[in-house]
Amino acid sequence: MVKQNKNEGGIRHLLLLTLFGTKRTRQVLNQNPNTTPIHEDSKEIKISVHDYNDKEYFVKELNTLEECFPFFHTNTITWINIDGIRKKDVEAICNYFGIHPLIQEDILSVN
């Protein structure tokens, strides 16, 4: 909430320099919206699955992305952690699990 002086009839002052003086704002303003950010796929990925219910908990390291798919059909809670990111892997797992395309874009976003 901005306090206004009755005599001034509006906001007393707005310091535009402080508004645009933050490091993040400078980074955003220096980006060219017409250029596509370059994304490099990871050479290797590491997949771990944390699967649990009210009685059990286990962590398993997986060798392939496809090994994650059976966890979709279990009655447990499953957290799939993937260190490293490759577009084809993100698309494969998101398509299998029914993740919305906009979320896929967010996952693959360089920024």
Task: Give a short summary of the structure.
The chain has 111 residues and is of the alpha+beta class. It contains four helices and three strands.
Strand and helix layout:
Blueprint (H helix, E strand, L loop, with lengths): L15 H4 L3 H7 L16 E7 L4 E6 L14 E7 L3 H11 L3 H8 L3
Antiparallel strand pairs: 1-2, 1-3
Helix pairs in contact: 3-4
Overall tally of structural domains: 1
CATH superfamily: CorA soluble domain-like
Proportion in β-strands: 15-25%
CATH C-level: Alpha Beta
Q: What is the helix fraction of residues, given as a range?
A: 25-40%
The helix/strand class is: alpha+beta
Strand order of the largest sheet: 2-1-3
Reported by name, the CATH topology is Beta Polymerase, domain 2
DSSP summary: helix tally: 4
Largest sheet, in brief, is: 3 strands, antiparallel
